[in-house]
Amino acid sequence: MKKSKTANPAAVPADAKTGYAAPQIPDRTELAGVRIAVLATRWNVGIVDALRAGARACLRDWGVSDEDVAEFRAPGAYEIPLAALHLLKKGRYDGVVALAAVIRGETPHFDYVAGECARGLMQVQIKTRKPVGFGVLTVNTVEQAWARAGQGRDNKGYEAAAAMLEMICLSRRLS
Ligand SMILES: Nc1c(NC[C@H](O)[C@H](O)[C@H](O)CO)[nH]c(=O)[nH]c1=O
Ligand SMILES: CC(=O)[C@@H](O)COP(=O)(O)O
Predict the structure, then answer these.
(1) What was the ipTM of the complex prediction?
(2) Cα distances (angstroms) measured from residue 168 to each of 11, 24, 32, 156
(3) Is residue 113 lining ligand 1, measured as CB closer than 6 Å?
(4) pTM of the model
(5) 159 labeled binding residue
(6) What keywords would UniProt list here (predicted)?
(7) pLDDT tens for residues 82-112?
(8) Active-site annotation holds for 86
(9) Among the atoms of ligand 1, which is closest to the Cα of residue 75?
(10) 106 annotated to bind ligand
(11) For residue 90, how far is its CA from the centre of ligand 1 (angstroms)?
């Protein structure tokens, strides 16, 4: 049977609910020397720190040594794009994992904060050509947030870090 040309086929069956098939973790040489910034915020900080734990677990699973990971804080999700741009623009880091928890309140403020955070991070990626893992929860309730910040690979911080690392491997393969 002809070998598939699609590189890095899904390593695990797709998640029944999301259809997400986590990538195969590459061998350690693919990420040799990579330097990662983990950027977290101060709103809903207990949830954000659970996302941070998930992101760090993913970086370890993919073989990124702790000495190649730096942690930073921004006030809130609205400030993350500018912070990510500062981290990436001088080439000090190969990628950023952006972590926040935006929880809807009584007013339309949620829409502006969440929307501009997402839009701003996409602009940072395109401008810098460096990946930013989108570990920003945009939820209606605290319960929804905790359901996405638990142990294991369902943690959105873990997922964001994995996506960012996969993009580093892909861009290295394509350059
Ligand atoms: N309500 C949430 C915010 N709001 C704060 C903004 O992100 C920003 O820091 C403020 O408007 C000052 O510029 N941020 C979150 O990350 N999560 C929230 O639920
Ligand atoms: C996402 C927010 O900014 C939100 O938590 C603010 O709450 P409110 O809309 O009640 O002011």
Answers:
(1) 0.97
(2) 18, 14, 11, 18
(3) yes
(4) 0.92
(5) no
(6) Riboflavin biosynthesis, Transferase
(7) 999 999 998 899 999 999 999 999 999 999 9
(8) no
(9) 9
(10) yes
(11) 26
